[in-house]
Amino acid sequence: MAEQAEDQEQDVSKSAVQQPAMDAPGGGGPVAAESSEEPEAGDEAKAGVESPSGNRSVEIGNFRVFMDLRLAEFDMGHCKAYSADNLRRNEGSAFAIVADPALPTRFDLINFFTGVHLAGQIDLLDSEIAHWPPFGRKTMVLFYEKPKGGRVAVKSEKKKLAIDEHDLGSVVVEPLMNVLQALGEKGLAHRNIRASNLFFADPLREKVALGDCAGGPPGYDQPLVYETTARMSADPAGRGIGNGTDDLYALGVLLAELGIGHLPLNKLSDQEIMDLKLSKGSFQAIASQERLPLILIEPVRGLLCDDPEERWGFNELNAWIDGRRTKPVQANSEKRAARSQNLSGRDYYTVRALAQGMAKNWVASLAPLRDGTIEIWLRRGLADNDRAKALADAMRQLQWAGADKRSAEDVLIARAILIMDPSGPVRFKGFSSMVDGFGYMLSYDVQHGRGPQRFADVVVRDVPAFWFGRQEGFSPEVHRLQQLYKNLRYYIQQQSAGYGYERCLYATVRNQHCLSPMVEQEFVVEISQLLPALEIAAAEASEDTWPVDRHIAAFIATRLEDDVEGQLMAMQNPSDEVEYSRAIISMLAIVQWRHGPDNLQNLSHWVARLMEPAVKVFHSKARRERVENEIPKLAKRGNLVELYNLINDEQERRKDQSEFVEAVAEYSEAESEVFDLESSGPARLELAEKVGQQAAAFASTMIALLTVSALFLMHMF
Amino acid sequence: MARGKKQKGGRSAFSGLSVIASAVLLFMVALPTFITLTVGLLPSMAAFMFDRSPGRTMARCVFGLNFSGVAPYILELWQIPAQTVGGATQQIFQPLALSIMYGAAGLGWLLYLAMPPIVANVLNLSAQRRVGELRKTQRGLIKTWGDSLIKEVDRSGN
User: Fold this and answer.
1) A2-146 maps to which CATH number?
2) Residues of chain B contacting A711 with CB distance shorter than 8 Å
3) Of the residues A215, A464, B76, B90, which has the maximum number of CB atoms within 10 A of its CB?
4) Are B112 and A707 inside 8 Å of each other by CB?
């Protein structure tokens, strides 16, 4: 393996020079600039060892990855491939795919494919989160078995087709159907089916295998033409998880690409492709621009059917492979208006095209909505009274809008778009994402400088609820999304730590790493990785910062099995230092108790420094002193649970509290009595005078009695 | 209330009448004793006349000691077999006897004046000692519970 890697050194170095942005997180995007440079001298130490041949390498799990040996032919979308050695097994050859840390990977697919051999999919051997020196931070690295036949070469006009068009059924469709069926049984979708992600599984090139589908958001790397008419207008990161029918559509485009030898409609811009597909339907759009081989017309027409219900499934594909005829499908079910609707100088004939036009011309689309032009067009041009009525209802709701008229107008446009394209993405002032792609879209926005505001606007204004309302029939998937959305709306409406967009992010994207500045470089995906990452951060943490910020609180609340709502409630009021610090220490202690590690010396010392407010939970000075003396001892042992137990001894706390209450009462009584004594001087003088006079009278009377008695006695005796 | 006052007034009138009746009876039965008592208890009578305070404590003070000063001379008078007005007059107008009787009345008055300040001092001393004890207890509580105790007391007071 190492030898092979060394053999490829020359080519690799060339490709590395040609594409410097490849080594950058963010796919050469905003995050890429700083790390696209070669690692500095200091980074080399992190880069691990230098192999005998002079290549820098890094050991990741059971593999050694050669950072200088790029394998450009195995690049999969935005993920770059590097040569790798399997340190545990001699047979086979592996390569590493380094995911962009600024894009979340797909947890369910990594879980499904790891260690499983599935015909039609290249073998995912393992996945690790590891420090990747060119990025200068940790990221996800996926290890794949090298497909033995190399990448499927799409024919150029002068070269011969890599796969004979008559063999496409057995070489391409059969193995891919196997993958799609296996995924479908688990309710998953590949969403990365395209010619540039296709490899020959064997040296004889008799079967193909799909490349990586887990290294980024679903559909992120797909060319626009591979996306269905419903999903193509969403931003790449928000194209959504999708389902098997989306994969079958992509299979149709794949067959078309393999048949014609290049990416269909590659001469058109994305906007032109969208317009063409929306006006003519997907199949007609391709068939009108490209010369499809005769044998492929039938499956491509069936697979590119824009109605998912009518689209070809496995039965039809099997029938086609077996040479049987299948029922013909209507290429384009989209109704075309008799007259156009003009918007910003462009004429639109279909509702979907108009919806897309409105999304692109947000401000200009308000006027024709408000003056009823679009409603009339729907009634007269398309005879679509249902949509017209829904639009009229939406406009009526605008009249009930309160002070925030502008916001209500934006909601009207968003609703009008959903009325006209209910299966499309949720679009709102530049935001465009499928509902099942909200999480990935939010992740992309947050990590690429756009921030969470667009997502928050959509959720706060409850636009997705309208999307759910426009879906026809019952779908378990839609129902599941609806439940998830309810939670998201609740989270985003809460302002305190542990909620907000951060919670939405971790609740919707399972493999989203924690974006807290304290641990982001450590790429914490699992809750068990959090404390070790914080332990590293604790070594350089400033004294006045807390080890739990909004991101970490939301991450713990989402990933931890235990309920931490109580702690989050306590964190709602940072001014209550005692409860705030107790809640933070409690959360960290639960995480350590559940997931370890046992010794967290730096973090314990960090927490110990911040325990001063928590110590105040005890009123008694003696107890406080005892706790303060105990804290450094326990911090040395690195056990947060013991630290937490120290301040959370319920029996001791209750005793302290009851004694304190008694002490307060005693003090108050004493104070009250002192006040009475000090303020009762005149009254006491008055009393003294009265008592004194009475005492004098009594004494005088007694003296008289004694005198008389004495005289009588003296007289008698 | 009015009824109570009336009853009190009635009882006072009754005791006044009984004193007058006793005095008339004494005048008729034992004139020398009456003279001795009348002259000897002049300060008390003056005190009863001028003391309008409730309970007439000053008059009672003066009377008690005044009577103690008169009582020996009454007994001395009673020891003479033939009690005469002259003997009584001779006995009573001796300077020493008058000094003893009126001096005793004066002592009664001094007792009345001196007793309230003494009681006031005793009460003040007792209050000061109690305040000291309470302050000590509070200091002990603060030492045990710290400033949070004061804060809590202030908070609950507010």
Assistant:
1) 3.30.200.20
2) 71-72, 75
3) A215
4) no
